[in-house]
Amino acid sequence: MVKTSILLHALALVSSASAALFPGKTRVKQINGSKDWKKYLKEERAAVVAFVAPWCGHCQKLAPEYSKVAGGMDPLVPFYAVDCDADANKQLCAQQGIKGFPTVKMFPRGIKVPPVEFQMERTAGNLFMWTSRSIPSKIARPKRAWGISNWKFENRAHPRAILLNKAQRVPLLWKVLANKYHDKIKFASARDAKGRVSKQMGFELGGKKESKVIVFTPDGRDAILYKGVMKYEPLVEFLDQLLAGTVDTTQHAVGDEQIVLKAEEEAKAAGSDAEEDDDEDEEEDGKKSKKAKKTNDEL
């Protein structure tokens, strides 16, 4: 009993020492020992870990920048900190090859994939950009209705999810989801600036900034439109239902495959006109995308 109390007290000291580096109400989670390490990084999703020491001046400068990015990335990418000065973490830090502080690493799919080390100037902007670009994701980019039809057919043995996006750039949220379900669901993203593709798939055009997530079950012909909030947790719940075969079609719209097939033929006949419209949309959107980038988890 006494030994247990001493151990708990020691772990509390470790946690408080490392936590003191970071601002109050930070989204940075503390990792204390190998059990925490395995618990937090067992899931195959992207995570960022800062290996620090409380006495390190560079760590003290990094802490507010790191915490700022952790808040902006939450809940898409979890951010952790390991106090390598604590006895409970010394073996872990040695295993990770930590030789200087601070060392920041991205674990693209938990501990299943080798980490990538951050080697830029330690600013919030650089950390955000590096994190976003270090997330692996295999996302197809079909164009127009027949391109989507080909993508659907080629991946018909798998659950499929496609984002019809008003902008040309693939949002961070969609990259994170594609990485999380990389071995379970085939992901795609298609430009639909004017809602033309939505209409061809049997759905309403939608608002000017409204994106759509449409899924297909394995060998299924019906297109199911997700009607929930475009945020990480609700979409994870929906995609888990897709994998389990329990999507409630009374809560989500189902497209008409006959409309899709007819629209694809009409689109093929239109051909070059549609391509010119899309090229104009892409050029216009390219100018807009340079102005600002969101740091939240909305599509």
Detailed description of the structure:
The protein is of the alpha/beta class and 299 residues long. It has two domains: 2-134, Glutaredoxin (3-Layer(aba) Sandwich); 139-289, Glutaredoxin. 44% of the residues lie in helices and 16% in strands. The chain contains eleven helices and eleven strands. It has helices spanning 2-19, 34-41, 57-73, 87-95, 124-134, 144-154, 172-180, 196-200, 232-244, 257-270, 272-289; strands at 29-31, 47-52, 79-83, 103-111, 116-117, 139-140, 160-165, 186-191, 212-216, 224-225, 253-254. The protein has a six-stranded mixed beta sheet with strand order 6-8-7-9-10-11. It has a five-stranded mixed beta sheet with strand order 1-3-2-4-5, sandwiched between helices. Helix 3 (57-73) packs across helix 5 (124-134) and helix 6 crosses helix 10. The chain is elongated and about 60 Å long.
Our estimate of the beta-strand percent is 15-25%
What's the tally of helices? 11
Q: State the CATH topology of the largest domain.
A: Glutaredoxin
Contiguous uncertain segments of 5+ residues: 1-15, 272-286, 288-298
The value of Rg in angstroms is: 23 Å
How far is the first residue's CA from the last residue's CA?
51 Å
Named at the architecture level, the CATH assignment of the largest domain is 3-Layer(aba) Sandwich
Along the chain, the helix and strand elements come as HEHEHEHEEHEHEHEHEEHEHH
Oligomer: single chain
Largest sheet: 6 strands, mixed
Tell me roughly what share of residues is in helical segments: 40-55%
Decide which structural class fits the backbone: alpha/beta
CATH homologous superfamily grouping of the largest domain: Glutaredoxin
Count of extended strands = 11
What number of structural domains do the residues give?
A: 2
CATH class of the largest domain: Alpha Beta
pLDDT averaged over residues: 82
* Sheet with the most strands: spatial strand order: 6-8-7-9-10-11
Signal peptide: 1-19
Pfam family, one: Thioredoxin
Domain Thioredoxin: 13-244
InterPro entries: Thioredoxin-like_sf, Thioredoxin_domain
